[in-house]
Amino acid sequence: MRAIVGSEPIVVIDVPEPEPAAGEVVIDVVAAGVNRADLLQRAGHYPPPPGASDVLGLEASGRISALGAGVTGWSVGEEVCALLAGGGYAERVAVPSVQVMPVPRGVDLVSAAALPEVACTVMSNVVMTGRLAPGELLLVHGGSSGIGTHAIQLAHALGARVATTARTADKLARAGDLGADILINYATDDFAERLAAEGGADVILDIIGAKYLERNIAALATNGRLVIIGMQGGAKAELNIGALMAKRASVTGTTLRSRPSTGGPDSKAAVVTETVARTWPLIASGDVSPVVDSVLPLAEADAAHNRLNSGDAVGKVLLTLA
Q1: Short-list 263, 322, 287, 321, CA closest to 90
Q2: CA 276 from chain center: how many Å?
Q3: CA gap 273, 100 in Å, rounded
Q4: Is 218 left (phi over 0), alpha (psi -120 to 50) or beta?
Q5: CA dihedral (202, 286, 108, 306) positive or negative
Q6: Helix (H, G, I), strand (E, B), or coil: what is residue 66?
Q7: What is the pLDDT of residues 13-27, one digit of tens each?
Q8: Domains in the chain, ordered, with CATH?
Q9: pLDDT tens digits, residue range 37-68?
Q10: Cut 0.90: pTM above it
């Protein structure tokens, strides 16, 4: 079976065929999403969780080809997409059935690979953790990213206002087309000042981390919620606890990949269930759509990584295995 394990340079190798354990399904992969975590894993900075495949890829779409013992609700041949702990850059992948999702109505099978990671990340952090409500203001850093383009659409569809940052006029215009109300060029404007003039953000979805911590706190509204999901700007920063307390605000750091598959409201199963229940109808209605920047064959995974790493992509970069 063809697959890609983190290496420099990237090469396609043969690996053993996956066998479904109890509660798992095997998916014949049609397409896989490319995520920044793949680049980090390739560089040796983000190893897979214990027991997970060392093949790259945190999301994929395809057709179910085998069912493990005890699996119900799925059938061989069904078109699906799935949230993975690893293994997406391969011809086949075994995944817990609770992390499998139907392809939303109106979405083709390749584009469906752009959904699991971003949809589950946004649902778990903006809605489930950040508790974004209609009429509130969400600040999304990196509005042209896969997560950013999805978060803008979902928040807009849920009746919230959206502010976003990006580095070029073209990217900001695209964010505006997706539903963002406040467009901030982070190269020339101070987002904290802009948000303060709006009364502050009720929820901030942050992929930067340390570099933005002080300004994120300044940008929060009273009772605001800062949810940090990335560390592109560093891992350590000084927190002004007084400023946080004065706003009765909160700071939460979360990850998705390391969560248990099952076992409570913070599990991947719970996130997947909520995502299918709340986001999939919005995709079917056309209020939310996958945003795909480019599609490349598996053999060009290196070019796909370069495209994502360049910062020029708008939306998701995908790999195809057909």
Answers
A1: 321
A2: 15
A3: 10
A4: alpha
A5: negative
A6: strand
A7: 999 999 999 999 999
A8: 2-115+290-320 (3.90.180.10), 119-253 (3.40.50.720)
A9: 999 999 888 888 888 889 999 999 999 999 99
A10: yes
